[in-house]
Prior knowledge:
Order of helices and strands: HHHEHEHEHEHEHEHEHHEH
Low-confidence stretches: 1-38
Radius of gyration: 19 Å
CATH class: Alpha Beta
CATH architecture: Alpha-Beta Barrel
Amino acid sequence: xxxxxxxxxxAFMAGASIVTPLVSASxxxxxxxxxxxxxxxxxxxxxGLHYGMIKEELSMTDKFKLVxxxxxxxxxxxxxVEMNISEILEAKEKANIEIPSLMNKDHWSVPLSxxxxxxxxxxxxxxxxxxxxxxxxxxxxxxxxxxxxxxxVSYEDAYNIAQNSIRELIPYAERTGMQIGLENVWNNFLxxxxxxxxxxxxxxxxxxxxxxxxxxxxxxxxxxxWIKTLNSRIKKLHIKEFSRxxxxxxxxxxxxxxxxxxxxxxxxxxxxxxxxxxxxGGWLTAxxxxxxxxxxxxxxxxxxxxISYL
Length: 310
């Protein structure tokens, strides 16, 4: 059974205790590249943004309506959510907008790679809650930072502990039928696409993959290389820009202070690669500086240009 079929089955049988045997990601990519290219259809991609980017003083319903009017198809929230699920669902319905994914907000303060089992347990329970919430909200993916390397947690320890923690989350993913998307961030961990690919392949579960952030790797690589290597393991895509020139001349974090289309992303190449891997996550979600309606309209238009390169 392939990943797509598994996800359909798991969603249908949510709550069941027995799940169909797993298929490794390497098998999924064993088809002839020529055959894949012949069968490839044009990628359809919706635009999303993070809820925190909406800086106008409005109700949730009116915020949703605003970004819908500006051309966005969906909103990503931080989770566990601070508002009532029923209120979010009501706002979502009134605005006719989607909530395709949630970003877990506890994976930094209580990381899955912590040597302390009590800390890890807090994160596991938080992510489990996020999986329940995204199912209720009609989406399919929870973003999770897989681990953090520090002076107190070695790279190898983080690797092994994080993998084991994610394995503990598999029953929750299976029960809800929801996906866990591991995001590449500046956590001193999983710093190459080959390693990132191996990390999820060793876990070997169709509901565990990558929530790939296109801008985060420009500090030390090229997103098109990552996309090509991670391939079908990519569940969702985050979009942001980065300038190595600003990083080198003004400081590390200044690299993000550049508009979409004005940084070092080679968008025609990046989006061509997205198309070549038959990305089926359906979404490109902005994680950039937000603002009022004029600012968000600009982001929406910039995303339109980027999507046009597919």
